[in-house]
Amino acid sequence: MSALNRILFIDQKPAKDSIGTLLQRRWPTFELLDVMNLDMIRAALGQAELWDLILCDAASFESFGVAELLRGVREHLNASVVLLQRGEPRVDIAQVYRLGVADVVDWADEEHLLAVCERELANALMRKEIRELRCSATQGHLGPNQALVVATIQDMSPGARQRQVEGHAPHHATVDARGGEVRDGAVDQRTYIRELIDAGGLTLEYQPIISLRANEEHRRMFETLVRLKDRTGRLLAPSEFLPVVSAAGWMNKVDLWILRRALATLKEMQQAGSEEIILFINVAAETLRSEKTAKAMAAFVSASGVAPGSVVIELRQAVFQDSVETLQTFARVLRERGHGILVEDLAVDDLDFLTRQTDLISHIKLGRDITQGLVERRISQESVNTLVKCAQEEGMRVIALAVDNAELLPMLFAAGVDAIQGHFVSMPYQTLMYPSIQRVESSSTPAWQDARGSS
After folding, report:
1. CB 396 within 8 A of CB 363
2. Is CATH 3.40.605.10 the right assignment for the domain spanning 192-450?
3. What is the DSSP secondary-structure string of 140-156?
4. Pairing relation of β-strands 363-366 and 221-229?
5. Max alpha carbon distance in the chain (Å)?
6. How far, in Å, CA of 333 to CA of 330, rounded?
7. CATH superfamily of 6-128
8. CA distances from 432 to 203, 206, 207, 230, 418 (A)
9. Per-residue pLDDT tens for 153-200?
């Protein structure tokens, strides 16, 4: 944080000394404005572009109607809003997130608060740079000698998430560096993603899944994660490109590419002496709607030569309802080789679904809604215990996703969960989104040419 960082602090019962002292523990210089009534808040937000971070007491956020005040200045705001809560009652995190709040932090958790401040100040800086670049492009100030300053800019303003929550599509702008022309639309975004894939940008990473069971033979497990490398070398998360891939009808090609590459990596590891490794591979619901694609996937698995029981295919519940015949075809090949199927979007009350699918499902995953619900006390320990017990009585293994803090571990252990994955067991770092045993870059052959036999 530099002297240019300006922090707005909203609290009807001001504690400027305490927040200022806390921030000075890490950063020697900053500007902090303490506002404690509605008129001061309106005046401060009247200069919304000045602020790099807005810290707001949770009670003041509600009593002053800060969410409504922010709505009118979202398009001018670079700063994230972080709520600070004291004791009870607890903030409804899902509700304030829908109102555009970036994070909620306990006053007493000082290290967490400092880390969140540092992260959101960096986000504000990025928004400023993107806003300036858009302005330059609109005014035609981008240099003619620049080959391509920006291929695609996604709307990263604080209002973007709010517009998505309210049902509006995210805004995408393509910037032509030569003419400064800004063009909107899905066609430009589709072309951009296609070009990245054609350039060999698809990349696989492998996130560890850690066993919680000490009384069984340990098998190393990893989930296959797909990323797309942009022109700057940055890795795009699935949410940044898979919706475009799906809308364009390319998902089956990409899924086949992922499956082939993941199986090849698994085979290499097993040949190197790691016979016990299990690889989890996601397959989209639309991919299994095609009988031809399902047969191609089954053929890839059959011809892969990987060890029996070393592949688990991750599916969503919709596949079990919408693609019954193709799923049965694919599942038969998996069973013959001892491989498994995991369902990943369960709710705690999906017990009937589990008992109806015992011949297909070998694993279930407790998703982020469940794990975060446990921590936030929105989901009861008893309901999770019941779900885990039901699955294990049917011979299924249970993996918990999004294990990001120590508070969750005893809850999962008490429920009898078999394994966990998430940032708590593999912290992200700069060069990889997740630590991985191996990263596999795509070849120069695009996914749609590499995935033979699909439709």
Report:
1. yes
2. no
3. T-S-TT-S-S-S-EE--
4. unpaired
5. 71
6. 6
7. Response regulator (3.40.50.2300)
8. 11, 10, 10, 14, 26
9. 333 334 444 444 444 443 333 333 333 333 444 457 888 899 999 888
CB neighbour list of residue 312: distance below 8 Å, 6 or more residues apart: 278, 279, 280, 281, 339, 340, 341, 342, 362, 363
Question: Which comes out higher in pLDDT, residue 325 or 163?
Answer: 325
Domain extents for the chain?
6-128, 132-185, 192-450
Reduced to 3 states (helix: H, G, I; strand: E, B; else coil), residue 378 is: coil
Tell me which residue of 335, 317, 417 sits closest to 374, measured CA to CA.
417
Residue with tokens 């009534």, as numbered in its chain: 37
Dist CA 355 CA 357 (whole Å)? 6
Rg (the chain; Cα; Å)? 24
**In the chain, what are the helix, strand and coil shares in percent, each to the nearest 5?**
45, 20, 40
Q: What is the pLDDT of residues 389-418, one digit of tens each?
A: 999 999 999 999 988 777 888 999 999 999
Rounded distance, CA 412 to CA 422, Å? 13
The DSSP output letter for 426 is S
Q: Long-range contact list for 354-358, CB < 8 A, 24+ apart?
A: 354/390, 354/391, 354/394, 354/396, 355/390, 355/394, 357/320, 358/394, 358/395, 358/396
Angstrom distances, CA of residue 423 to CA of 388, 392, 406: 22, 25, 11
